[in-house]
Amino acid sequence: MGKSQNKERATFGSKLGVIFASVGSAVGLGNIWRFPYETGQQGGAAFILVYLICVLILGIPLVMAEFYLGRRSHANPVGAFRGLAPNTKWYLVGLMGVFSGVMIMGFYSVVSGWTFDYIFQALTGSLSDKTPEVFQKDFTAFSTNIYKPIIWVVIFMIITHVVIISGVKKGIERSAKIMMPMLFLIIVIMCIRSVTLPGGEKGLQFLFHPDFSKINSNVILGAMGQAFFSLSLGMGCLITYSSYFGPNVNLGKTAVTVALLDTMVAILAGVMIFPAVFSFGISPTQGPELVFITLPNVFQSMSFGYLWALLFFLLLGIAALTSAISLHEVTTSYMIEEYGLTRSAATSFVTITLIILGMICSLSVGAWSKFTIAGMNIFNLFDFISAKILLPLGGLWISIFVGWIVPYNDLKSELTNKGTLKFYGFNFYRFILRYFAPIAIILIFFNELGLISLS
Ligand code: PFF
Fold this sequence. Notes:
By secondary structure, the protein is mainly alpha-helical. Helices cover 75% and strands 0% of the residues. It contains 18 helices and no strands. Helix 1 crosses helix 8 and helix 9 crosses helix 12. The chain is globular, with a radius of gyration of 21 Å. 54% of the residues are buried.
C-alpha cells in the first residue's frame, strides 16, 4: 500500500486539455437531467438563486481546495491525504470519497443507459407519434423491465471502460476534447430553438423571477447538494484530475472557469427545457422523469421533432459519458496506486463492480421496487445519500483539512505556483475554508435535521 508517490505519473498534455477534462467531469447528467427537475420541483428561480450562491461561496473555494490536494500530492484521494498527513486518520476522507463515487455510479450508469436507449429510439424513429399517456407507459415499461436497461448499463460501462483503459492522455483528455465542443454546439442550437417557441416566455419567467417564499430548508439543502454534485465536488474526483495537472496550471483560474462553464450549462439546460415545457402546457414539477417523459412530448410537437430529440439525447449521452469517465477514474487510480494493480486490471475490476451496482440500481426501479429503505428504493437512496449527505460531508472535511491542517505557506505556494502568480485575497480565501465553509455546511445540515431553523 501507499504506492501513491510514483515517479512516472501521467499528466494532461495541455492547459486546454485540463479545462476540457475538468469541465467534462463537471458537466453531466447533473446539469441536464438533475438540475432541471430539481429546479422544477423546488420552485424555479428561488432554487436557482440559492444554487448560485452555493456555487460562488462554497463551490469555487472548495474546488480550489481539491485542486490543491491533487496537484500537491500527485495522488488519488486516499494517497493524497496519506501523503499530506501521514500516520493520521485523514485518509478516511479520501476513502469516503471513493465510496461515494462508486455509489453515484450505481444510479448514474442506469440513467446514462436510459439515455442511450432514447438515442437508439430517436434514431429508429420510435420516439414519435405517441400520445403523452403512451410516452409515460412506455418509459415505465422500459425502466422497470428486467433486462433492457441492464443491457444499456453494460454497453455504457464498456464504452467508459475503453476510455479509461486507454489512459489519462489518450483516453480521458482526447475523448473530452472531442466531446465537449460537440456538447456546447448542441446546447446552443437547442436553446435558440426553445426560446423561439411561442409561449416560451413563461418558462423563462419560471427560471428567472424568484418567489422568495419558496425558500425553505429543503430547498437550501437541495441547492447545496446540487452544487456539490454538479461541480463533482466533495468526493475526490477533482483531487484525482488535478493530480494530473502540470506545474504551470493556474489552479484558481481553472477552478473559476470550470465553475462558470458548469453553471452556464446548467442554466442553459433550464433555458432549453422550461420554455418548451411551458410552451406545450406541461407541468414543470415532474421529477426525475422530466427529460424522459415530458420532453419527448415536447419534441414531437415541434417540426423536425425526431431531429431535436436525437440532438438532445446525444447531448445528454455525451455529458453522461465524460462525467462517468471521471467517476470511474477515481476508483481506478485508487486501485492502481494503493494496491499496485496495473491500469488494465484495475479498470476491469472497477468496471465489473460498477456493472453489478448498476444492475442492482436498475432492478430497484422495477422488479425490486418493493424493497425500500426510509421510503426510498436503492436508486433514490443512492442519489440521496451521495448528493445530500456524503458530498457535503466530504466538502466539510476537505475545507477543515486544507484550512486548518495544511500549513499556510504550503497552500499559498501551491495556489500561486511557487509565488509566480498573484493571489489577491489569499487570507480571505483561507478564512472561507477555515470558518465560513465548515460553519455554513454544518448549519445547512442542522437546519435540514430540524435542529435549527434558517427560514
Ligand atoms: N458532476 C457530474 C454531473 O453533474 O453530472 C456528476 C459527478 C461526476 C459527480 C463526478 C461527482 C463526481 F465526482
